[in-house]
Write a structure and sequence with these properties.
single chain, about 190 residues, alpha+beta, four-stranded mixed beta sheet, two-stranded antiparallel sheet, 4 helices, 6 strands, about 35% helix, about 15% strand, elongated
């Protein structure tokens, strides 16, 4: 998510009312929640509000969210490829594990990294979390899953950064989730 904001917009709709939940996929900022905004777009000008919440953001939309974007003429240019993002996290983690195994052949006293478990695969259409407004339950479920993925990634970065032989494999600073972003298909909202 190098272009623009690191904040992704989860887009859903319930009973035709769009719901947007923002999730920050960037590097961890101590004390700041990754769940950084939520809206039920049922005001006077839903098309304008929905456009304002999604126009410059990478999106992850449910089928109902895609329909809401189409109905309100909210075009998105970039979408999160969820499966490829998880694959990317696994590939980085596995590469770091390989680096440890190679280093351990010459340095017998190395402590092995402890990798956090990744969240179970997400079915965005079935995701759900208890929410104050029931219309937000699916979007919140997706946002919390993304938050869990980011926390697992943060743990990978913690393991990488506390090992001098791993720091060159990504630099001296914590990195953002290796999100895989695709261009939206022309004529498709997201």
């Amino acid at each position: 998510m190098n272009e623009g904001s690191s904040v992704l917009a989860v887009v859903d709709a319930m009973d035709g009312v769009p719901v947007v939940w923002w999730v920050d996929l960037g590097p961890r900022i101590a004390g700041i929640s990754r769940l950084c905004g939520a809206w039920v777009v049922d005001g006077a000008d839903p098309a304008r509000t929905l456009q304002a919440l999604t126009a410059t953001r990478v999106t992850l939309s449910t089928v109902d969210g895609e329909q809401a974007l189409k109905e309100h003429e909210g075009a998105t240019e970039r979408v999160l490829d969820l499966e490829a993002t998880v694959t990317s996290v696994v590939a980085v983690r596995d590469g770091l594990q390989t680096a440890y195994e190679e280093a351990a052949t010459t340095k017998k006293s190395l402590t092995p990294p402890r990798w956090s478990a990744l969240p179970e695969p997400l079915d965005i259409e079935a995701a759900e979390a208890a929410a104050g407004d029931p219309r937000t339950a699916r979007a919140l479920g997706i946002a919390r899953w993304l938050n869990d993925l980011c926390r697992a990634w943060d743990a990978v970065e913690d393991e990488r950064l506390k090992r001098s032989y791993m720091r060159p494999l990504g630099g001296p600073a914590e990195r953002a989730l290796p999100a895989v972003i695709r261009d939206a298909q022309p004529g498709v909202a997201a």
